[in-house]
Design a protein that fits this description.
Rossmann fold, L-2-Hydroxyisocaproate Dehydrogenase, Chain A, domain 2, 2 domains, 16 strands, 20% strand
Amino acid sequence: MRLLVKTACAGKVEGVMTKKITVVGAGNVGATLAQRLAEKDLGDVVLVDVPQTEGMPAGKALDIRQAGPLCGCGGRVTGAAEYGPTAGSDVVVITAGVPRKPGMSRDDLLNINAGIVKSVSERIAETSPQAIVVVVSNPLDAMAHVALKTTGFPKNRVVGMAGALDSARMAVFLAEALDVSVQDIRPMVLGGHGDTMVPLIRYTTCAGVPVSDLLSKELLEAVVQRTRDGGAEIVKLLKTGSAYYAPSAAAAAMVEAILRDQKRIFPCSAYLEGEYGVRGLFLGVPVKLGARGIEQVIELRLTEEEKAALRKSAAAVEELVAILRKSAVVAA
């Protein structure tokens, strides 16, 4: 961290320590996230990518900086092809990995991205041993597991971006079905970030009213299925890539909650040790995010049907982790 002496941005105060945020991966998600973080004035941002990309991270960082005067922000954004400039980061967001392509499930990404996330996590542990790590790379829950086991960080300092994105997608679909503002929807999605996620209709409201009182069972089931297919729907439409605007917005909101100690409640992928009957796995659950990372796992009362759906989701994550253990990517 560096001492802030002068700033061109409103809202920053002389003499306070500026936070440092590293975004690993300068692709669509990473670069868009770096832009969002810069515009939120959360601190200095370092956008890092592999040496083979040559000047790409630096070029994107320069482009983001030049947008600053037009956006009313002046945070320092730098690009790098090695981890030296990231040293001492307060938060590190891992977006690096191969994006999903049409016809490819998140599970197909497992072995390739596990190797990438493991390598990144080793460098994070070396250069930023006190950082809080936010994992965005897919398959999300398994990659968070790799990051935790590789860094050796406490479980509260490794969190996966999953339910925040899935809940946002659910909110959009419900707002469309109800013809209301998306700001009035309060959704809740648990479970793994994939086909077995568990959108909780009972805990989802519109202006405080349960959505089950406002929509038919058939419409709600359609919304639930579209939420589960939310990422795949975008992949199918784009044909040559995957979502990045919404994932970057979800990650930015989580980083903001951590650095500003907002104590916000997000559904995130957290390492569970008995909560919800799950042990030794990352799974999407409601958590309180603040300066210490995951400050609390909030346990909701679930019906037997919801518990069964969550167990099924946990089993799908366990299958991926078992593959990683077998291939020695993570310790058994």
